[in-house]
Each structure stands twice: as C-alpha cells, then as structure tokens.
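Summary of Year 1 activities. Much of the first year was spent building the evaluation harness for sequence design. The harness presents a backbone, in tokenized form, and records the residue chosen at every position. We chose the following record to illustrate the format because it has been used consistently in internal testing since the harness was completed.
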C-alpha cells in the first residue's frame, strides 16, 4: 500500500485538456490514493450544501468529494462526509 504523502500539496494534480471536447483544465485532489476529485465551483458547492436553494435536484456527492473540496478551498481535510460538509458550510459564514 502506498504511503500518503506528508506534503499535502503533493496530492494536487493539474491536467491540461487533451482534446477539443474537453477545453478546460482540471485541478484535482487525490483522496486515499485512489480517487481524483476535481474542484467544484463555489456556486455549485453552496447548492450542494443547501439543497433547498438549488434550482433543480442535485445528486448527493460522496465523502471523498467533500474531503477533496475542503482541501481545494484551503480548509482542513475531514475524513467523514458529515464533518467535511459542516466544515465547508461554516467556511461560507
């Protein structure tokens, strides 16, 4: 099993577009050495944290997603979904 890098910046990955279909670069965070999670824009993240504000139902995301969003937004990583969601929600205040 691979060791988790001690430097959290080593867990960020930048991918340039490889085709004309995918025209935006991706900024990814590696969770548990297996999940590459892209950064979610702040408006969509806010709607995921407050589903009643979303214009249409959004698919609930995994705990890996919320852990990665904490890292993407410079917050402490949280290993459980509910704690990670609460950390992100409080950061908006």
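For this record, the design step produced the sequence shown next.
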């Amino acid at each position: 099993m691979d060791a988790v890098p001690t430097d959290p910046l080593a867990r960020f990955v930048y991918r340039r577009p490889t085709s004309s279909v995918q025209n935006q670069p991706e900024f990814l965070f590696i969770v548990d050495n297996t999940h590459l999670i892209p950064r979610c824009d702040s408006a969509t993240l806010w709607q995921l944290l407050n589903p009643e504000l979303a214009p249409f139902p959004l698919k609930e995301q995994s705990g890996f997603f919320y852990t990665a969003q904490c890292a993407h937004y410079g917050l402490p990583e949280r290993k459980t979904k509910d704690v990670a969601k609460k950390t992100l929600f409080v950061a908006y205040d």
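Strands lie at 12-15, 26-31, 35-38. Quantitative recovery figures across the full test set are reported in Table 2.
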